[in-house]
TrEMBL record:
The active site is at H154, K158. NAD(+) binds at G8, A9, N10, G11, R12, M13, D34, G97, T98, T99, A121, S122, N123, F124. Homotetramer. This is 4-hydroxy-tetrahydrodipicolinate reductase. The gene is dapB.
Amino acid sequence: MTKVAIFGANGRMGRRLVALATEMEGLSVVAGVDGAGSPQIGEDIGVLAGVGELGVPLTDQLCGDVEVDVVIDFSVPAALAGVIEECCKRKLPLVIGTTGIGDEHQAMIDEAGQRIPIIWASNFSLVVNVLNVLAGKAAQLLGSDFDIEIMEAHHRFKKDAPSGTAITLAKHICDASDHDFDRDVVFERHGDDCLRQPNEITIQTLRVGDHPGEHTAYFATLGERLEIKHVSTSRDSYVIGALKAAKWLSLQSAGRYTMSDVLKLDRV
């Protein structure tokens, strides 16, 4: 049985992690952590997640006497440094699903990978990670004669834009082709002189209602167009992927890993 501690356990994603972990064979949630000052501190995380009592209270820190095999963090960027420090101190594998993290956080993750098994993904959905591979293959096969665009849509409450998933998708396309991310990727268009430039890849963003997530890569030339799309109908797809990543990571040695490692997509 893999014992899981969840940081951000009282958030939207955290509650679904708790709920779905109870349904996944071989997993047991032994700790749930939320920010200090949360009014739900002390309440049972199973009750908060809507699955009944689990006998695990929500706490504002990971208690030292709790036996943990792997940590999943879906909290906030400001808390990430503390989570990484705690996991390194206790030699705990760490799965990071927190969105909106920057270059300084990526540097922390790189450094932590020298001490513990660690994985960060902009999206843990199994199908989204296949989308990345397929889009990269399409860019490689179709070549520079095709225009490439990315459209992403999420709920109105999402703070960061474009989504980390869209950025990761663009990076996969660039890595598989002659595009350069820093040179060619453009975020939106606005103005009187927005004529498409050679090799340009534009990421467009929508924020509407309660949309859980949609990403489309367009490859178009004169007379025809290929669209590769992923539509999420529930956030549970992200949660299931994160839980599977946690089970896999708990058995690995120190290093920084990706979902391609978890899913063995390098064999494709």
